[in-house]
Amino acid sequence: MKYWFSDGAFRTIIRNSAYLGSGNVASALLGLLALSCAGKGMSPEMFGVLIVIQSYTKAISDFVKFQTWQFVVQFGTPALANKNPRRFRDVISFSFGLDIASGAVAVIGGMLLLPLLSKSLGLNAESFWLAVLYCTLIPSMTSSTPTGILRAVDRFDLIAVQQAAKPLLIAVGSVIAFFCHLGFAGFIITWYVSNLIGGTMFWWFAARELRRLNIHGALRPSLFEAARGIKGAWNFVWTTNIAHSIWAARNSCSTVLVGIILGPAAAGLFKIAMTFFDATGTPAKLLEKSFYPEIMRLDPRTKRPWLLGLKSAVLAGGIGILVALVVVVVGKPLISVVFGYKYLQAYDLIQIMLSAIVVSMVGFPQESLLFMAGKQRASLIAQALASALYILLLVLLSHAFGVRGSAFAYFAGQCLDVLFSLIPTLWVYRHRNLLGFSIPIESTK
């Protein structure tokens, strides 16, 4: 481990993960507080409806949006390293244009689709119109350009601030709604306002950093003109968009699908279990967010980025084992205290899904390594196969075994995703000498 930490890039990944971790710890605790207030302030059915509405808007935004933050990191980080602000400005303009276009499509599509699904989602007249209101948040949820800017300029501390600020606002609003007995409408309105303010913070931070770097005019949307000067731009954004849509079908849409098959109450239980699963997988997400920008500064033909991925995977796996043991010990009493005994069945789901934590954490570097090597289509195919099998298992096992079947399907889906991504990753590593690399930059950290 002493030798590992002598690697400057590895130290940078750990440092940036620590920044993000500080925000995510606060986010997780405040998120639990918000869910606790909502769970205790409403019946399980209405709590499930609230979760379904939130999950629906997130699923629509995830399904439609382009992964513009990955585009900014992929093309913008080398531009900054080579002191080419004009190219970086073009990257931001193109990325911003994609955010605006996809946000418009997503909000219109979400509102048009909602009347067709309202009965299946368990929405009455009042909750339907509140769900329509919540759909207007979708454009802010589809925008990831500011996140990419902050990652490219190495301002992970600002990302951590935003990640803590938004759940703080949601938690405060939930506490007010709980003690003032504002009911379902109070919770959804406070969550709406908090998400809106939190999303605006990202744009303010990004604009401030661009001014600090003396990069002007970047936040002027430009799709076709800016893309002409960026070779491979459309290929990259469409591939990552399709890959993320597949991810959305496997993750964000899961709670909505469980709600349609088993009802809002089951969706609420599944959401609680997913919240614990997401919290335990946070270390891998933090490492990935700092790992991807760092390896984009390295040559994929050398062993260094691949060894960096192996070190990060081992570190994440070790953390995953420790986190899983903690959840086994404290999960049941924590659910009882935070949500109440009526939601204790969620612990059974957590026990089933817990086995996938270490697997998913060990496999986190694979997607970033494939993107670094320009093999995003291989990642797309792997995710598509794993997601198709997961959705099939989710429908079949939910019908056969209820909400426990949904948990078993989620566990199987995570394992399939890591396994299918491992195959192209190993192939690319074995043939790394054949990779093209047009911008040879090395990290000097």
TrEMBL record:
What InterPro entries does the annotation carry?
Answer: Poly_Biosynth_Transport, Polysacc_synth
Keywords in UniProt for this one?
A: Cell membrane, Membrane, Transmembrane, Transmembrane helix
Task: List the coiled-coil residues.
Answer: none
Lipid metabolism among the record's keywords?
Answer: no
Listed name of the protein: O-antigen/teichoic acid export membrane protein
Q: Which domain of life is it from?
A: Bacteria
Localization (cell): Cell membrane
Bilayer topology term: Multi-pass membrane protein
Listed transmembrane segments: 91-116, 128-153, 165-184, 306-330, 350-373, 380-401, 407-429
Q: Short name of one Pfam family for this protein?
A: Polysacc_synt
Organism source for this protein? Answer: Sodalis ligni
User: Which Gene Ontology cellular-component terms appear in the entry?
Assistant: plasma membrane
